[in-house]
């Protein structure tokens, strides 16, 4: 029996467990969004013209800018997580705050796009197209808000100095969620706005 | 022995029940035997024979299962039989299991699949395309069936369109094509005596065809829950001889022309006959 | 895998029984909630069957109390609510809490040698979310126009404001949404726990099949309940905010919603859901048949992998619920083929069950009786599925009582009997006392006979063409002759319902004064039977190491007894070590093991 077993502390084991739990959670969420994209696809396939006649085309500028905002915010957060994991010095509150700021910017730009579409007559009640556009984007935006909430919690932890290399599960989970929401946005942008 | 009493009781009950059911189902009204409604259609025999063959095959499997279970419970029981330690994952066992499952699958499922494929392509999906078919538009609503014929002029949405309520009349031995839609919720047009059923939905035109081989009156049933009076959504299919049908259509068209009111929007429900071919 | 901490035991009443994070307590909470709703849903079934047996007559005894405005008579409108809510309640508030909430929570940690679930607080939250869902559901019965009435399948447009106006249907869909959230929370817990918290030595193929069933169910729950969530969300939006996902005007052509879209989403969830509801029972039966035949579960791996294959295939067969919607023939053919294929892995483990019993030494205990009952009803129900998976026969049988009989046999009867098997089996471990065998046997036979009478009867009337959800079959002449059969079914159903009182009595009386149970009254080797009945709040101290599989029964190399606990040291099995001998070929009658 003279094998050498790698030592895994209780904390490390718990970390892997909570990581797996997070992955399963995100799988469930991915399926929800998949169902919504399915709805979008089904509507589109049935429709002779897209967008249907009389409905304004979706803009590309602001949503495109939002895509950059999303990618940047994920990059910032990822950098922060890597720094913490490797034990390099970092002013964590600033980085988390920057991510949140970019998230807020995303929401602000999204609101501008919504108002513009509403003014052009595209409301949630505007047939199947309106329903699917507004629901997809609103649902996604709600997840951004949730992500901001989680990041606020992490910010609190960071300000209190509770986030260390050994113990940063909340930060890691927040990052996983944030990247997930960002990926959904990229899909949304490509499938709904660009296509 | 004592523990066999409940088992025997169960067996007696099942046999008695089976006999009672069989007797009721093969009584005078059920000329077809087997408990199915009388089939008066051209292609219904396909479904009936597939139902029959599958019933026979599944009954055989079921009986094997029961015999196996009862034997094991009676013979291989605690105190009478010593258990054999067999994990069943030896190569021989695995191969046997896979072979038995495959055999059952190929015979039973295979019979079903192949016959269904043939039935669907030869009959149910094989819509008649000749101009001699009778074409009827069925618009379902809560809780009735409205039918529209193009009338003697053969043109839809003209003064002589015949519109009926819960009353579909067709000639015998002639293919009838129905286009189905609904004004409100999903209904399902079911002709038990012709073995056909298709949903009638708002915003979509579904198609259904059948051919009745004898005259008589048969029922139209709604087979999709559509609200409180779903159970009352009954119509009547009347199959007439060719002459009777032609007379009826002529008479109804004439009446329709007489009663035609160009200002009555509601009476003009209907759609241009959808000429899309089936794939 | 991990040395989980032993927390101090909670002391206050609230922390012990309401806000507990102990999986065993949460399991019992789900059991009581589930049993309450099974009774509620069952009562509704009695009303439905009364109407079908004696149309237009007031329900005896309590009819006036239940339906005062109609003098105790089931009205057509009440009938639509009854069959809708019967289905929804039995599925989401009955079977799910009992088979998944109770058995999953109780059995998984104990059977894999863990102290609790991976996320105990999440576990507590999942029960409370279910509780909130239940309150919302009960609320739906109190609104003016009544509760849901669009069938459990909730198809639009009938389920939109067009077909079922008012708040009742909306509230029901919201309740389902919350129930779904609770299920997903539980699913996350079960999946992670099985992956991470198995005791040392317990690989995936040393897990009891009960755990396999729960794990596969949890995976399906996590993946497919969200799809229902999306479908339900869009329906709520249509009903409340005027969106048009599922609504189209009758002849509109552009930019409309699509009622069929709901059917796709619903059945993408719905078909995996039926496997979600039966996998736990399959798992439990696979173990119990082995335990009470005193033989290993025949071809354990085949059963585990067969259940896995069914799980994977469950996602791609859903179209067989939609054969009469006018779907594209190519799609129809594909769904038919896949549906027939999915029967193969199920056949494999069904055969394994039969083989497990064969040449065993069968102990006819109450759990065994119910397990054999499951084999019977599932075999029968599964065979009837063949008729429905084939398009041409389905054209005739779709939306008739044949479908109702089929799914009640495979889903309700099998899950019901499987739940009883499990409850009678694990009751000693949960409460430390034995349930009465005698009353249990009566309960079994009465339930088994009447279940078959009811659901086989439904197969018969469906074969005759009787449609589902029919308030009064006498409207149709082609159904007139089925009145007698319907009466028979109903009376059998009444006996079935009343027989459950035997169970209730047995359960409660045994809780209070049943014979005390030892650690291992059934002489079975899975890990939960190595600890006291009921277990300490921390389950195991220390975490056991697993040396054997869960089905070491009647191994000829074991002297003195016919079972081996998974935790017992490896040298309990005498003779050369297991690795040096081909498995399954050891026993062939002549052994030297003393009994």
Shape of chain C: globular
Low-pLDDT runs of 5+ residues of chain A are none
Strand elements of chain C, count: 0
The percent range for strand residues of chain A is under 5%
State the oligomer.
heterotrimer
Outline the low-pLDDT stretches of chain C. 576-595
Overall geometry of chain A: elongated
Q: What percentage of residues of chain C falls in helices of 4 or more residues?
A: 55-70%
Number of contiguous helices of chain C: 16
User: Whole-number average pLDDT of chain A?
Assistant: 89
Radius of gyration of chain A over all CA atoms, rounded: 20 Å
What is the CATH topology of chain C? Cytochrome C Oxidase, Chain A
By CATH reckoning, the class of chain C would read Mainly Alpha
CATH H-level superfamily of chain C: Cytochrome c oxidase-like, subunit I domain
Rg of chain C over CA atoms, rounded to whole Å, is 24 Å
Give the fraction of residues assigned to helices of chain A. over 70%
Domain tally of chain A: 1
What is the CATH-assigned architecture of chain A?
Up-down Bundle
Instruction: Work out the count of structural domains of chain C.
Output: 1
Can you walk through the features of this model?
The complex is a heterotrimer of chains A (about 200), B (about 280) and C (about 600). Chain A has a single domain (about 10-195), classed as Four Helix Bundle (Hemerythrin (Met), subunit A) (Up-down Bundle). Chain A contains 5 helices and no strands. Chain A has helices spanning about 10-45, 60-85, 90-120, 125-160, 170-195. Chain A is elongated, with a radius of gyration of 20 Å. Chain B is an alpha+beta fold. In chain B, helix 2 (about 45-75) packs antiparallel against helix 3. Mean pLDDT of chain C is about 90; it is low at about 575-595. Chain C is mainly alpha-helical. Chain C has a single domain, classed as Cytochrome c oxidase-like, subunit I domain (Cytochrome C Oxidase, Chain A, Up-down Bundle), CATH 1.20.210.10.
């Amino acid at each position: 029996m003279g094998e050498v077993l790698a030592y895994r502390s209780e904390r490390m084991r718990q970390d892997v467990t909570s990581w797996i739990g997070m992955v399963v959670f995100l799988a469930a969420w991915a399926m929800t969004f998949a169902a919504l994209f399915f709805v979008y696809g089904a509507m589109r396939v049935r429709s002779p013209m897209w967008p249907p006649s009389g409905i304004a085309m979706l803009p590309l500028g602001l949503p495109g800018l939002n895509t950059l905002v999303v990618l940047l915010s994920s990059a910032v957060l990822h950098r922060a997580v890597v720094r913490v994991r490797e034990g390099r010095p970092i002013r964590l509150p600033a980085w988390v705050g920057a991510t949140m700021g970019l998230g807020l910017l995303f929401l602000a730009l999204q609101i501008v796009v919504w108002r513009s579409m509403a003014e052009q007559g595209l409301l949630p009640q505007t047939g199947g197209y309106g329903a699917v556009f507004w629901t997809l984007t609103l649902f996604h935006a709600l997840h951004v808000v949730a992500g901001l909430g989680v990041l606020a919690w992490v910010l609190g932890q960071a300000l209190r100095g509770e986030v260390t290399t050994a113990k940063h599960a909340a930060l890691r989970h927040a990052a996983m969620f944030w990247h997930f929401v960002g990926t959904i946005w990229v899909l949304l942008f490509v499938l709904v706005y660009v296509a | 022995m004592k523990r066999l009493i409940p088992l025997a009781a169960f067996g007696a009950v099942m046999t008695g029940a089976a006999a009672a059911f069989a007797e009721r189902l093969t009584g005078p009204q059920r000329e077809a035997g087997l408990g199915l409604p009388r089939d008066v259609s051209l292609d219904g025999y396909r479904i009936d024979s597939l139902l029959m063959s599958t019933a026979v095959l599944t009954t055989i499997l079921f009986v094997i299962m029961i015999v196996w279970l009862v034997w094991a419970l009676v013979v291989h029981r605690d105190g009478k039989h010593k258990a054999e330690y067999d994990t069943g994952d030896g190569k021989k066992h695995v191969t046997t299991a896979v072979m038995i499952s495959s055999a059952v699958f190929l015979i039973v499922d295979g019979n079903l699949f192949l016959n269904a494929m043939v039935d669907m392509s030869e009959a149910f999906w094989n819509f008649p395309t000749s101009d001699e078919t009778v074409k009827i538009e069925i618009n379902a609503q809560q809780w009735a069936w409205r039918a529209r014929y193009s009338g003697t002029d053969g043109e839809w949405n003209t003064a002589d369109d015949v519109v009926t309520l819960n009353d579909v009349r067709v000639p015998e031995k002639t293919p009838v094509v129905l286009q189905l839609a609904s004004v409100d919720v999903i209904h399902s047009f079911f002709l038990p005596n012709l073995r056909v059923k298709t949903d009638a939905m708002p915003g979509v035109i579904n198609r259904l065809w059948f051919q009745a081989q004898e005259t008589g009156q048969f029922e139209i049933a709604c087979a999709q829950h559509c609200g409180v009076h779903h159970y009352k959504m009954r119509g009547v299919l009347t199959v007439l001889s060719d002459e009777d049908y032609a007379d009826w259509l002529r008479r109804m068209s004439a009446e329709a022309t007489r009663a035609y009111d160009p200002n009555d929007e509601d009476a003009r429900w209907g759609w241009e006959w959808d000429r899309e071919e089936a794939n | 895998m991990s040395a989980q901490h032993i927390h101090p035991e909670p002391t206050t009443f609230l922390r012990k029984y309401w806000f507990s994070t102990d999986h065993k307590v949460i399991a019992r909470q789900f059991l009581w909630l589930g049993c309450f709703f099974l009774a509620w849903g069952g009562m509704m079934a009695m009303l439905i069957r009364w109407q079908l047996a004696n149309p237009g007559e007031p329900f005896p005894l309590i009819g006036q109390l239940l339906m005062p405005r109609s003098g105790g008579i089931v009205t057509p409108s009440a009938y639509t609510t009854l069959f809708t809510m019967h289905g929804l309640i039995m599925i989401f508030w009955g079977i799910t809490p009992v088979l998944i909430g109770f058995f999953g929570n109780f059995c998984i940690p104990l059977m894999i040698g863990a102290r609790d679930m991976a996320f105990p607080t999440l576990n507590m939250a999942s029960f409370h979310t279910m509780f909130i869902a239940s309150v919302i559901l009960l609320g739906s019965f109190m609104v003016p126009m009544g509760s849901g009435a669009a069938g459990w399948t909730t198809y639009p447009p009938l389920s939109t404001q067009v077909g079922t106006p008012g708040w009742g249907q909306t509230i029901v869909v919201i309740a389902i949404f919350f129930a779904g959230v609770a299920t997903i929370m539980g699913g996350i817990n079960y999946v992670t726990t099985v992956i991470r918290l198995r005791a040392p030595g317990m690989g995936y193929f040393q897990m009891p099949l009960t755990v396999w069933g729960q794990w596969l169910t949890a995976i399906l729950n996590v993946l497919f309940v969200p799809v229902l969530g999306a479908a339900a969300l869009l329906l709520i939006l249509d009903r409340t905010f005027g969106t048009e996902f599922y609504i189209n005007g009758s002849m509109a052509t552009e930019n409309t919603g699509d009622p069929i879209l709901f059917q796709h989403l619903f059945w993408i969830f719905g078909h995996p859901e039926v496997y979600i509801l039966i996998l736990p029972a399959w798992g439990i039966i696979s173990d119990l048949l082995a335990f009470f035949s005193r033989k290993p579960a025949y071809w354990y791996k085949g059963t585990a992998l067969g259940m896995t294959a069914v799980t994977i295939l469950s996602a791609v067969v859903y179209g067989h619920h939609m054969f009469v919607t006018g779907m594209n023939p190519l799609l129809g053919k594909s769904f038919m083929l896949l549906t027939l294929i999915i029967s193969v892995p199920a056949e494999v483990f069904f055969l394994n069950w039969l083989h497990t019993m064969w040449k065993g030494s069968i102990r006819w205990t109450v759990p065994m009786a119910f397990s054999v009952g499951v084999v019977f009803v599932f075999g029968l129900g599964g065979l009837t599925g063949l008729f429905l998976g084939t398009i041409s026969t389905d054209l005739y049988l779709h939306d008739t009582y044949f479908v109702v009989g089929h799914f009640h046999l495979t889903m309700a009867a099998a899950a019901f009997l499987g739940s009883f098997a499990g409850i009678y089996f694990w009751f000693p471990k949960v409460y430390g006392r034995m349930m009465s065998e005698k009353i249990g046997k009566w309960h079994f036979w009465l339930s088994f006979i009447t279940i078959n009478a009811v659901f086989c009867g439904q197969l018969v009337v469906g074969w005759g063409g009787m449609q589902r959800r029919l308030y009064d079959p006498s409207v149709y002449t082609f159904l007139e002759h089925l009145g007698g059969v319907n009466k028979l079914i109903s009376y059998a159903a009444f006996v079935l319902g009343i027989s459950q009182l035997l169970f209730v009595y047995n359960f409660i009386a045994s809780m209070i004064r049943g014979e005390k149970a030892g650690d291992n009254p059934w002489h079975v080797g899975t890990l939960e039977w190595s600890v006291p009945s009921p277990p300490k709040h921390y389950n195991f101290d220390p975490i056991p190491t697993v040396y054997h599989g869960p089905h070491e029964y009647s191994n000829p190399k074991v002297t003195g007894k016919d079972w081996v606990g998974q935790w017992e040291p490896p040298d309990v099995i005498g003779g050369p070590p297991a690795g040096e001998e081909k498995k399954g070929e050891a026993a062939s009658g002549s052994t030297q093991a003393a009994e």
